[in-house]
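Async update (no meeting this week)

Hi team, since we skipped the sync, here's where things stand on the single-chain job. The sequence we agreed to prioritize is pasted below, unchanged from the tracker. I ran it this morning and attached the output directly underneath so nobody has to dig for it. Comments welcome in thread, and please keep replies under the output.
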Amino acid sequence: MEFRFPVAAAEANAAAQQYLTKNLSDRDKGQAELSRLLESLGNSIDHYPDWHPILMIPQVAKLTSDSSINQLYRGADHTISFVRGFVTCPYSEETANKLVSEANQLVGLHAYRTEVALYSDHAYPVVVEAINVELEGDGTIRSRDALAWCVQELVKNARDAQVAETWWNLRRCLLGSPHGSRSSLLVNQFTGGHMRKILEALNTSGIYGPIKEWSLEMFSKKKREKISETLLKAALANYKKQDGEFEFELRGETCKSQVRDTWGDGTELSIRVDIGDYDLSVTGYYYPEKDNLEAFDPKGKKAIAEKFL
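Output:
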């Protein structure tokens, strides 16, 4: 489904409201507090991009690569994230106070306890915000800041990299989620477009090594389904009704396939087709009684995948 900012924002904010207020004795008061948080912190989101200060600040301070809020902020529980920060609702007041104290020791963060209950009447909500995250008029992170943080993250591990990752592989890591092809609730299309150009320029330079193609999300869902179904149907056509591996030729490529009777009763066949050393890989299931094929997204190189459209 195509990403539409207003729809995605409305859905995310509605989900946050449901999560944070459904168990409260005074839901109206909780909803008013959530409205205040949305005004202060921006839209609710699912995941932060890897470069976001909410993740980077504690990672640097603790010398860790953990990317989970619960791992980076000790005591975080029942958490909802927003563009500029998050609210978390532990059941222990002592835990909440420690979380506030520890977060406020990190330069670039500001944490405080809310006076209004959220998630549960018995929880102690804590808000943590990234002070330097400023929002554009559309509610996304200011472009120059997002690009600078993104570039810092991209080049950080270049010396130790073995392969370069494509935009389609890294899109969620760079845009956060929910996201579209080049924008999200945190990053608008202008910023996302420049992030992609920067990544592709770095990849072309060879700084990371050879490019690893894996995600095929540049194709529409319909085309990805066709690629998978073409290969899986060919595997079934060449299947000799004996579990094991076999090869067949299709459109100039040698396809290595494995078909297995999943449960040993003929009701479900597990299928896998690989071309080259992960040049293209497809998996799925076939249900003979219903003549139904269930295919998963193909993974691999675009040039190889195009042969099966």
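Quick observations from my side:
Residues 143-212 form one domain.
The chain is about 40% helix and 20% strand.
Reply here if anything looks off.
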